[in-house]
Design brief:
Blueprint (H helix, E strand, L loop, with lengths): L10 E2 H8 L3 H10 L10 H4 L3 E2 L1 H11 L6 H9 L7 H10 L5 E5 L2 E5 L2 H6 L25 E3 L6 E7 L5 E5 L4 E3 L9 E2 L15 E6 L7 H12 L5 E6 L2 E6 L2 E3 L7 H10 E3 L1 E5 L2 E5 L11 H14 L3 H19 L1
Antiparallel strand pairs: 1-2, 3-4, 5-6, 5-9, 6-7, 7-8, 10-12, 10-14, 11-12, 13-16, 15-16
Helix pairs in contact: 1-2, 10-11
Length: about 325
């Protein structure tokens, strides 16, 4: 019997892609760029695939090793502490310098990296969890700033303290404090009750920032009541910090008359941070300020955008817009 010696031909393109955690198209791009060299570069078509020596792959893997946490890594890490944040929030903290970060080339793109010890030391920056589940409790139907009334005593009340899990305190217009769990026993009935509602899939959103009122009756709270009624909890994000209420919301139409609701419209206009207001005969339209961009690129560019968006933990659209903003800002700074 003739024994055939098994020859190790190396790793295929697919195996290298799996090892490095990238797409096969990325490996083809690396070959074109000279970042990795298959030993059968000239004859790969005969083999049906590029073949790479293990040491060549180890070299590239070392070069691609992340020097810290990317945005996507940070979001995943924070979830372990029951903290949920958006990619834009993490990026803004890094850009402002609140969260120490360095920018280094990673897979052909400048990427922010944060050391684990720096993230651990700054967890307080992300201690306010954003999202519907933190201001609306689906199980009980209670929500932050929900108004109540007692038809027996004539008292008006509102949920003013909230722990994000449906627990907190209700404050009355007579400055009485009541635990949310005791509100029904005190014969208070909700003025507004919410269901899940439908999801508004319209692109974009608008942002308002209000000073948090100290009294339960306020024009600001009246507006927030309208947001809850019309937009619904599925189409809102609400965050309270340092005496400020920040609301991000999908576009809606408020049934306001320009003459009768002048104070409300002025307050909305002065509190609008992102988006636009349009007064119409049938009400006030609160809309995003988004416009579409049309552009065409190569398949290679599209694959790279997808890969780098995954690294940053954002959507491809968010990655493209942020890249455009950064490019424009660099040009402005050079002027």
């Amino acid at each position: 019997m003739i024994m055939m010696e098994t020859i190790n031909l190396g790793l295929t393109t697919k195996e290298v892609a799996e090892t490095l955690g990238v797409t096969e198209q990325t490996i083809y791009n690396y070959v074109k760029e000279g970042r990795v060299t298959p030993w059968n570069k000239e004859t790969w078509k005969m083999d049906g695939t590029y073949l790479f020596r293990a040491e060549e792959v180890e070299r590239v893997e070392s070069e691609l090793k992340k020097p810290g946490f990317t945005t996507k890594d940070i979001i995943a890490y924070l979830e372990g502490f029951n903290i949920k944040v958006s990619p834009s929030t993490v990026i803004s903290k890094m850009k402002s310098g609140e969260l120490p970060a360095v920018m280094k080339p990673y897979r052909n793109i400048d990427t922010f990296f944060v050391k684990k010890e720096d993230l651990d030391a700054n967890l307080h920056l992300f201690n306010r969890v954003k999202g519907r589940e933190k201001f609306f409790d689906k199980k009980t139907g209670y929500f932050l700033f929900q108004p109540f009334e007692n038809k027996v005593t004539g008292e008006f009340a509102r949920i003013m303290e909230w722990d994000g899990a449906g627990n907190g305190k209700v404050l009355t217009n007579r400055e009485r404090e009541i635990l949310i769990e005791d509100i029904k026993q005190q014969e208070f009935q909700p003025v507004i009750e919410l269901g899940e509602g439908v999801v508004n899939n319209k692109k974009g959103s608008l942002v308002f920032k209000f000073a948090k009122p100290k009294q339960v009756k306020s024009l600001i709270f009246d507006l927030i009541d309208q947001f809850y009624r019309i937009a619904g909890p599925n189409n809102m994000k609400l965050e309270v910090s340092d005496g400020e209420i920040k609301i991000e919301m999908k576009p809606i139409l408020l049934p306001f008359d320009k003459a009768e609701h002048r104070d409300e419209i002025d307050l909305l206009n002065n509190s609008l941070v992102e988006g636009k207001m349009i007064c119409r005969p049938n009400g006030v339209v609160l809309d995003s300020d988004l416009v579409s961009f049309v552009a065409y690129g190569s398949t290679q560019l599209k694959d790279q955008v997808k890969e780098y968006a995954d690294i940053e933990g954002v959507t491809q659209e968010e990655f493209i817009i942020q890249s455009l903003k950064d490019a424009v800002q660099r040009r402005i700074e050079r002027k």
